[in-house]
TrEMBL record:
SUPFAM superfamilies in alphabetical order: FKBP-like
PANTHER family registered for this protein in UniProt: FKBP-TYPE 16 KDA PEPTIDYL-PROLYL CIS-TRANS ISOMERASE (PTHR47861:SF4), FKBP-TYPE PEPTIDYL-PROLYL CIS-TRANS ISOMERASE SLYD (PTHR47861)
GO MF term set: peptidyl-prolyl cis-trans isomerase activity
Enzyme Commission number, as recorded: 5.2.1.8
Name of the gene encoding the protein in the UniProt record: fkpB
Keywords: Isomerase, Rotamase
Pfam families reported for this sequence: FKBP_C
Signal sequence extent: none
Name assigned to this protein: Peptidyl-prolyl cis-trans isomerase
The family this protein is said to belong to: Belongs to the FKBP-type PPIase family.
Record flagged with keyword Isomerase: yes
Domain of life: Bacteria
């Protein structure tokens, strides 16, 4: 828990915000939620992690506030970039990996980091892999419940 002197009354630019976050698609289905994991997330405003549109919806919020707002692709997870979609030969995948449409496969990059890709299509020996964020190109609805605000 944070010291009382570090807590803020309301969200301002540069704050850290502890919140339960649920992300829904336009059809109302839940794409992700911190409530599933039982652990709220720290959101750091002003560090470039979130769009200005996302952050502007939080400014002025107080502890226990419940916010709901919709953002288009450009302000949420970005547009789908065609250059991030690749066709790979099926032989490039380990034999123990189950290849099916919608499956997320992790690829090791030269620097050792993992990059997830979504199998979009399998055509013979060619596998279409999408390296865009899974929610790229989607308009999404954010539901946040503010738990804590810190300087």
């Amino acid at each position: 828990m944070l010291e009382r002197s570090e807590l803020c009354e309301q969200v301002t630019s540069g704050c850290r915000v502890l919140a339960d976050v649920t992300i829904k698609l336009k059809d109302g289905s839940v794409a992700d939620s911190t409530k599933v994991h039982g652990k709220p997330s720290w959101l750091i405003l002003g560090d470039g992690s979130f769009s200005e549109a996302f952050e502007s919806n939080l400014i002025g919020a107080k502890i226990d506030d419940k916010l709901t707002f919709e953002l288009g692709p450009a302000d949420a997870f970005g547009e789908s970039v065609p250059d991030n979609i690749h066709f790979m030969d099926i032989s490039q995948f380990p034999q123990d990996v189950k290849l099916e449409k919608g499956a997320i496969v992790s690829f090791e990059q030269p620097n050792g980091n993992q990059l997830p890709g979504i199998i979009r299509e399998i055509l013979g020996t060619s596998v279409k892999v999408d390296f865009n964020h899974p929610l790229a190109g989607e308009t999404v609805i954010f539901e946040l419940e503010i738990k804590q605000i810190a300087a």
